[in-house]
Amino acid sequence: MVLSRLKSLPSRTSDTAEIDLLSFEDALEGVSATVLLEAVRQVNQAVLGHAFHPSPPELRMLCDKIQRQISEDRARKAEGERQRRESEQRRLQHEKTKTPEARARVATMLSRFNQDHEARQAAARSDGLSETADQVRDRLKGQIGETAFNNIPDLPVRDTFKQVGHAR
């Protein structure tokens, strides 16, 4: 039996081995052999934090923890597989809709968009909306005068942007 691997550990056993065996049978009811084997391996690797033979409830809690991890791993794997299948189905469905007519419609819409975009950019350039900062500064100096322009206060610098050692 798997529990025989734990016999080398000091234990807090009762007076009779029969009571101990019944306690472990009750505590480990429904636990698979794989989970129990992993729990015993972890006990021998001092996962419980002590060097004693585990009590039946301790061993059951460790088995439950291992089973929970296994179940979560299976669920995560199943979810990943489901998402992969859905992605593949969407890709196949998308491939079906790529008919020559659909491609022509998309090409027409794209060319219309590009023409409209180029026209808007040309209009913005002719409206003077694409001025650089230097051009704006020179234009304002010409409109209000250099003295008035130089008297315009700068925006205050927020404290979060001040350099360490240079803050006022």
From TrEMBL:
Residues 73-102 are annotated as: Disordered. This is Uncharacterized protein. It comes from Pseudochrobactrum saccharolyticum.
